[in-house]
Amino acid sequence: MELGMKLCGFDLVAWRGFIYAIFILNFVFCCQLILLQPLVAATDGKPGDSAALFERVSQSIKVKRYSEALAELNAAIEADPTLSEAYWHRASLLRQLCRYEESEESYKKFLKMKPGNSAAEKELSQLHQALNALDSANNLFDSGDFTKALEYIEKVVLVFSPACSKAKLLKARSLIATKDYSSAISETGYILKEDEDNLEALLLRGRAYYYLADHDVATRHYQKGLRLDPEHGELKKAYFGLKNLLKKTKSAEDNASKGKLRLAVEEYKAALAFDPNHSAHNVHLHLGLCKVLVKLGRGKDAVTSCTEVLEIDGDLVEALVQRGEAKLLVEDWEGAVADLKSAAEKSPQDMNIREALMRAERSLKLSQRKDWYKILGVSKTASMSEIKKAYKKLALQWHPDKNVDNSEEAEAKFREIAAAYEILGDEENRTRYDSGEDIDEMGMGSGGAGFNPFGGGGQQFTFHFEGGFPGGFGGFHF
Hints:
Layout: H1 2-40, H2 47-62, H3 66-79, H4 84-96, H5 100-113, H6 118-143, H7 146-160, H8 165-177, H9 181-194, H10 199-211, H11 215-228, H12 233-257, H13 261-274, H14 279-295, H15 299-312, H16 317-329, H17 333-346, H18 351-368, H19 372-376, H20 384-397, H21 407-424, H22 427-434, H23 441-444, E1 462-464, E2 475-477
Antiparallel strand pairs: 1-2
Helix pairs in contact: 1-2, 1-3, 2-3, 3-4, 4-5, 5-6, 6-7, 7-8, 8-9, 8-10, 9-10, 10-11, 10-12, 11-12, 12-13, 13-14, 14-15, 14-16, 15-16, 16-17, 16-18, 17-18, 20-21
């Protein structure tokens, strides 16, 4: 009797446990049905739920939440592998992300379920166009044809794959290569809005700011990237390269300001060697170097440095002024006047430039005078007796009576020699000439009314030397 009661009690407990387990399993099954309802709606004859799924996917794509959209489509396909529209949506999304192999696979699965669908076939064709265009753009970039690479990216790849981060980064690299730094900043800005930790976008955006000489902003981009990945090779190279460039530049400027000009020259050259393509910064380095070289009197080197500046920025007034000063050092009077005149036109209120231009014009005018010392073959420090001796020797050499076979050349030489002696053989005239005063050659000599060794109008002229010519000639009559 007691054993029977125990058996009955055991059966009652077991029976209750069994009922409880059935209840739990039924509850779990109901929950699963509720949670999976949106994904499997299309399989139970409820097209409205399927439309809601694709609407959610569409909204996620619009706000660039591609991962969420893809996750929903994958879940729907896993729940119902016969949901053909999900394959098509997934294929389209993967194409936009330029995940071309996965996209092609989804298109083929959709077309297997819905053969002959013209819209899907057209999108698959667009996928192949985008894939080929991206390959072409990469090849063109590697070969150095950056402009053509940009055409492929913009006109094909980003038309059919607008969310392709690989194409956007390649576009940014191409824009930097074509020196369109502002556009590169905009392009990488869009990428960083979607993914603020994109290391390549941070590198490229920093590089664009670097080439615009906005070094502080460039540094911040490099530093952010290195905080995310301290061992990133390109970011480290860019960051420490910029630090060294700025350090060398400051050293050059400090030495120049302290008057350590030769050391400054070496520092400027070292800074310029860092990156020959950094035009926005190198223009200031070349100008600083030119100014130091002018102070050192190294005119030829200074002209070269200032020309480098003007090839980068042809309107930089200070570079025109410095090159004008450098050209004065190398006695390129006309070049100096041209540069300083251009600078004066660009900055008409600057009196220092006007004074420099006046000096250059005066030097040019003096350079265009005849060098009477050179004509007589004497130095500028020659004594009066040396001048007189040189004159007599040349007058005898070029006297027309002694040059009957080349009388025209001899007469011209003789006139020039006589004019030189009239200026240099007179203390007052020589002083005026040496001071740079404008002496009228036609009035003082060289065949003018004031002096003509051959006379005019058929009138005879007798030219005498004091003491006569060597050899007993007392005078020559014409």
